[in-house]
Design a protein that fits this description.
The protein is mostly helical and 208 residues long. The protein has 11 helices and no strands.
Length: 208
Amino acid sequence: MEAAKSGSPGGRRAALLQAAAEVFFEQGYAATKIDAIIDRVGGSKRTIYNEFGNKEGLFLALVVENVDKVLSAFPIGEIGTRELRETLTAFGQHLMAVYMSHTLLGIYRIAITEANRFPELVKSFYEQGPGRATSQLAGILEDARNREEIRADDCERAAGHFVGMIRGNLHLQVVLGLRPPPSGEEMQQEVVFAVEAFLRGVLPSSDK
């Protein structure tokens, strides 16, 4: 990580986020000190404060970076050209992969642990993370409803149900350490099951 000090701005930012993730996951959010992150990656506190504002900003940047991996996979202009089942499957696969990544699993564990002590942090985590993914999916569903492809009175609620189906008990079991993360094949099977179950609830009767 020492090389990150003299790298490009993007490289330095990535190195800071990687070091922050390591320290957050090892020590927990409350116990983490900016100095510990600096010791890991090098540089100065000013670099972190200029880039992220404070420790909360650094944590939320981790959330945003990972959610962006899902949302950036769906250019708005291309969504309307895809069949809805294909769109939901691709969205679900990206979402599942991010949810089961080492970084997001660690972030979820921190959010659960720190919810009572740092409610505003956890609220921001939801808004910048799961909330953003749900809102983008709601927009996709609204477009499908406008094309009369689905029946849904509340697309935001429907999107929330789909996101919840993607996480499901599988994600909870992994977050709690009850089992290891699933294989790629198992994740794909879970996504296909979720998509089919969801579509049975929203497709017009003649299309089911």
